[in-house]
Design brief:
The protein is built from nine helices and 52 strands. It is mainly β and 803 residues long. The termini are far apart. The N terminus is likely disordered.
C-alpha cells in the first residue's frame, strides 16, 4: 500500500513541478528539487521498514494431524502449547521447556474444549472437556491455526464441514511416528483416513489410529529402540568363529508383523535375513524390514483393515440433517445470534434453523448465563485462580462465579523440635522447624513453656533408634527399635510428627519398643518430674518409599484384547534411582528409571498365553537411596475372559430347584425339564437349541444368568449358551436333552446310547416277541416267549368260549 502511495505522490509532485518550474527562478527550482528528494527518501525508508516488519513477523501456524494425550511429548505437544497460549491459557514453564503434555497442558485443553463445546463436545454427547486432542479438537485447532491459509479469528465460532471425493482427500493412510517396542516386538502407530459418502454433499472425513506390528523379533533377538537387534550387545562376531555361512543360518526370510492397506492393496512387512562376510570369522547376521505386496485387491474389492473386502454396491445412502441449536445471545444492536450444527454432519444446509433474529432491548433478559468453570490452579502466594465462561455466550457477567480465591497450600508442615533448654526465670525454650519448608505456622508445636527450677537434681532423657541418636534412613514398612533412659523424672509420654499410633501415649521412664514406620517423621519422648519440670529428646527417621500405579489405580482388571490405553505412574521419597521389571519381560518396562515419572504401555497385551484363559502381569519397581536402602512396590494387571455355564435338570412343571447336571438328561415324552445358566465377565448372552419348540422363550432371553427355566420334553435337543464380553471375546457351554417316545408299535429314543426308532418285532418262528418301551427317558427292550404264536410284535392269546 505504501508503495502505491509513493508512486501517486511522486506523480503528483512531478506534475506540479513541471507545471510551475517555468515560473521559478533557478534558486527556487533547486530548493524545490531538494525538497522533493527529501520526501522521496523518507517514503523509501518507510517502505523498507514496512517490508522488514512483514518479513520478521510471519503469522504462526501449525496443522494438527495426530491424537495427543497427557504423557505425550515432542513437536506436536509444543505446537499444542503454543496454540493454547495464543488462545489465552497458561501452561507451566517446566512443561513448555520439556515439550511435555502435563497437567497444566491438559487443563488448558479442557478449557479450550469447553469454550468451543458446540463444535467439539456436543457432537459426541460430552458435557465437559476430556483433555484428549482428538479429531474434533484438532479440527477446531486447524480452523484457528492451521497452515492452509484459512485461519479463523480466535474469537469467531466456526463449524468445519469436511468434504471429500476419496480417502486420499482426508489424509495419507499409513504409519506415523517412531517405531517402539512392546511385548518383545516392534510396533508403530497406523493412522487410517476414511472418506464417508465420497463425492456427495454429505461427505466427511474420519480418522482412526491403532498399533500394528512391524517386526517380530526372533529368539536370538531383542527389541530395542524400535528395532529387533541381536540379543548380545553387538551384531558383529567378536569370537573369531564363523557365525554364518548363508542367510538361512541367520533365519528364514518372510512376512513378519501385521497386514495393512497401501495403494488400494494389502501389504505386510517383509523381513530379510542377511549373512554379512559369509564363511569368514568376521561373519555376522543382520535383518531388514521392507513393506511388500501381500494381496492385490480386485476392481470389485477395497482394502480395509489389512484385507481385501467386497465393495458395497449401495451408494445411495441418504443423510438426514438433525439440527441442534444453542441459546440466543444477548440483544446487541437489535440483533441476536446463536450457533446451530447438524449432529449427523450431512454437509448440507437444508432445513437449518435461523441463526439470527431481530430483537429489542427488552429481549436481553431471555438469555440466562450458564457458567462453567475449570479447575482451580495450584495455590501460590495464598491465591488460586480459574477460568469461567458462559456456555450460552450471553455477553454479561451476571452471577459469574469467582475466578480468584484465597487458599492454603497443600504442603503439610512436618515439625521437628530440639530439646528444651534449662529452666531459666521460669521459662524454657526450644527450636522447632518445618522439614517440608511450607512457609506456614499451622500446627507448630510450642517453642516455649513455663517451668519450675529443678529441686531433684538435673533432669535428663536419652532416646535412641536402632542404637543411635539418628537421623537414620529405612525402607517403608520397616520395624525400628526405640531404646530410652532418663534420670530424676517420674513419667514420660511419646509422640510423633506425623502421628504414629505405635509411638504415642504414656511410657515408662526407661524401656524398649518396636515401631513400624511408613513415612519420614520426628519421634519425641517427653519426661516430667514431680514439680512439672520437663525434659525432651527426639530422633528423626527418614523413610525411602515408592508408590506405583496403573491408570491411577493400585490394580486393574480388563478383558482380553481391551483397547484401553495403559499408563504406569510412580513417585517416591528419599530415592536416588529405580529399577523396573515385569513378569512378562515387557521391554517398555525394564531397566532404570528416575525417582518419579510415567510410562505409556499401550493397550492390554494380546499374548498367546491369555488367548483362551485368564492371566495377569505384575509390574514392579525397586528404588534405592545413596546408602543402599531399598523400597519396592508392584501392581497387577489382570486379563479376563468371559465364562458361560449351562445346567439341565428334572422339573415338575413350574416347581423344581435350580438344575445342577451337565447332561445328558433323559426324560419321557411330555415330562418337564429345567435349564439354569450363569456367566462371569460377560455383557450379553445368547441362547440356541437344535429343536427350539421345547424352549422358545428361553432362546429369546438375553440375560447373562438365570436360576430356573422349565419346558416340556417333546424332542431330543442340544441347548447352547454363548456369552460375550465388551471386547467380543466369547465363551460357550452346551447340554443335551434326550427324549423317549413310546406307542403300541414300539419306541423312539436312545437305546444303549444309540438314538433310533425301535419297532416291536416277532422272530422267524413267531414264537418270541421283542417289545420296546420308555423307562425314565431311555428305550427299554424286552423279550417274551409266545406259546400261542406272535403277530405284529405281540404274543397271541387264545380265548375259549364255553361248550
Amino acid at each position: 500500500m505504501k508503495q502505491k502511495l509513493f508512486i501517486v505522490f511522486l506523480f503528483i509532485a512531478l506534475f506540479c513541478f513541471t507545471a510551475s518550474v517555468s515560473a521559478m527562478t533557478d534558486q527556487e527550482r533547486q530548493a524545490l528539487i531538494d525538497q522533493l528528494q527529501q520526501q522521496i527518501a523518507a517514503l523509501q525508508a518507510q517502505i523498507i521498514e514496512l517490508i522488514q516488519s512483514q518479513q520478521s513477523n510471519p503469522s504462526w501456524c501449525y496443522t494438527f494431524t495426530e491424537t495427543l494425550i497427557q504423557g505425550n511429548s515432542g513437536s506436536g505437544v509444543s505446537a499444542l502449547q503454543t496454540a493454547m497460549q495464543k488462545s489465552g491459557y497458561s501452561i507451566s514453564s517446566s512443561e513448555v521447556a520439556a515439550t511435555l503434555f502435563g497437567a497444566s497442558t491438559k487443563e488448558a485443553v479442557v478449557s479450550f474444549q469447553q469454550k468451543y463445546a458446540s463444535e467439539i463436545l456436543n457432537p459426541y454427547g460430552y458435557t465437559s472437556g476430556t483433555g484428549i486432542v482428538g479429531l474434533m479438537t484438532r479440527t477446531k485447532l486447524n480452523n484457528l491455526y492451521g497452515c492452509d491459509g484459512s485461519n479463523a479469528d480466535e474469537n469467531e465460532e466456526t463449524t468445519n464441514v469436511i468434504k471429500c471425493n476419496s480417502d486420499y482427500d482426508c489424509g495419507n493412510t499409513g504409519f506415523t511416528g517412531d517405531a517402539f517396542c512392546s511385548s518383545g516386538s516392534v510396533y508403530q502407530t497406523y493412522t487410517t483416513y476414511t472418506c464417508k459418502n465420497p463425492g456427495k454433499s454429505n461427505s466427511f472425513c474420519t480418522v482412526g489410529t491403532t498399533y500394528k506390528s512391524r517386526d517380530v523379533c526372533s529368539s536370538s533377538q531383542v527389541c530395542s529402540n524400535g528395532a529387533c537387534v541381536a540379543s548380545n550387545t553387538t551384531d558383529q562376531n567378536n569370537n573369531n568363529e564363523i557365525a554364518c555361512k548363508t542367510a538361512s543360518d541367520c533365519g528364514t526370510s518372510g512376512y513378519s508383523g501385521d497386514a495393512f492397506c497401501k495403494s488400494g492393496s494389502v501389504y505386510k512387512p517383509y523381513k530379510t535375513y542377511t549373512c554379512n562376510n559369509a564363511r569368514t570369522t568376521s561373519s555376522y547376521c543382520s535383518s531388514s524390514i521392507a513393506d511388500k505386496l501381500y494381496d492385490t485387491c480386485t476392481a470389485r474389492e477395497t482394502c480395509s483393515n489389512g484385507s481385501c473386502v467386497a465393495q458395497d454396491d449401495d451408494t445411495t445412502t441418504s443423510c438426514s440433517p438433525n439440527w441442534s441449536c444453542g441459546s440466543w445471545s444477548s440483544c446487541i444492536n437489535n440483533q441476536q445470534t446463536r450457533n446451530c450444527y447438524d449432529t449427523n454432519y450431512c454437509g448440507v444446509t437444508s432445513g437449518a434453523p435461523s441463526q439470527t433474529q431481530s430483537c429489542t432491548s427488552t429481549d436481553q433478559t431471555t438469555c440466562t448465563p450458564n457458567w462453567s468453570c475449570g479447575s482451580w490452579t495450584t495455590c501460590s502466594s495464598g491465591q488460586q485462580t480459574r477460568y469461567c465462561y458462559d456456555t450460552n455466550y450471553c455477553g454479561v457477567t451476571t452471577n459469574k462465579p469467582s475466578e480468584q480465591q484465597s487458599c492454603v497450600s497443600n504442603c503439610t508442615p512436618n515439625w521437628s523440635c530440639g530439646s528444651w533448654n534449662s529452666c531459666t526465670n521460669g521459662q524454657q525454650t526450644r527450636y522447632c522447624y518445618d522439614t517440608n519448608y511450607c512457609g506456614s505456622e499451622a500446627n507448630k508445636p510450642d517453642d516455649y513453656q513455663s517451668c519450675t527450677s529443678n529441686t531433684n537434681g538435673n533432669l535428663s532423657v536419652d532416646l535412641k533408634v536402632n542404637g543411635v541418636d539418628g537421623p537414620i534412613t529405612v525402607a517403608k514398612g520397616s520395624t525400628v527399635s526405640f531404646v530410652w533412659s532418663s534420670t530424676n523424672v517420674n513419667s514420660c509420654s511419646a509422640s510423633a510428627s506425623p502421628g504414629n499410633n505405635s509411638w504415642s501415649g504414656n511410657k515408662a521412664t526407661s524401656g524398649v519398643a518396636s515401631v513400624v514406620v511408613s513415612t519420614t517423621g520426628t519421634y519425641f519422648l517427653k519426661c516430667t518430674d514431680t514439680n512439672s519440670n520437663t525434659v525432651e529428646d527426639n530422633v528423626v527417621i527418614n523413610v525411602v518409599a515408592v508408590d506405583l500405579k496403573i491408570n491411577g489405580q493400585e490394580s486393574l482388571t480388563l478383558p482380553y484384547r481391551s483397547t484401553t490405553p495403559l499408563t504406569l505412574t510412580w513417585s517416591s521419597s528419599g530415592i536416588n534411582s529405580c529399577n523396573v521389571s515385569s513378569t512378562n519381560n515387557d521391554s517398555v518396562w525394564s531397566g532404570t528409571r528416575t525417582s518419579s515419572g510415567s510410562q505409556v504401555l499401550g493397550s492390554v497385551p494380546t499374548y498367546s498365553d491369555y488367548a483362551t484363559s485368564d492371566g495377569s502381569v505384575t509390574y514392579s519397581i525397586t528404588c534405592t537411596d545413596s546408602a543402599g536402602n531399598a523400597a519396592s512396590d508392584s501392581i497387577t494387571l489382570t486379563i479376563t475372559h468371559p465364562t458361560a455355564t449351562l445346567k439341565i435338570g428334572v422339573s415338575y412343571g413350574s416347581v423344581g430347584s435350580a438344575p445342577t447336571s451337565d447332561g445328558p438328561l433323559y426324560r419321557n415324552y411330555g415330562d418337564y425339564f429345567a435349564l439354569g445358566w450363569s456367566s462371569t465377565n460377560a455383557t450379553t448372552c445368547t441362547k440356541a437349541a437344535t429343536e427350539s419348540s421345547s424352549a422358545y422363550s428361553w432362546i429369546q432371553d438375553t440375560t447373562t444368568s438365570g436360576s430356573f427355566f422349565y419346558g416340556q420334553a417333546l424332542f431330543k435337543s442340544t441347548y447352547t449358551l454363548t456369552c460375550k464380553d465388551s471386547m467380543g471375546n466369547t465363551a460357550t457351554d452346551t447340554v443335551e436333552l434326550r427324549v423317549c417316545t413310546s406307542s403300541t408299535f414300539g419306541a423312539i429314543g436312545f437305546l444303549d446310547g444309540v438314538y433310533g426308532s425301535y419297532a416291536n418285532t416277532c422272530d422267524s418262528n413267531n414264537r418270541q416277541a421283542t417289545t420296546y418301551t420308555c423307562n425314565d427317558g431311555r428305550v427299554m427292550r424286552r423279550y417274551d416267549f409266545c406259546s400261542q404264536g406272535c403277530s405284529g410284535g405281540k404274543c397271541i392269546e387264545r380265548y375259549y368260549l364255553p361248550g
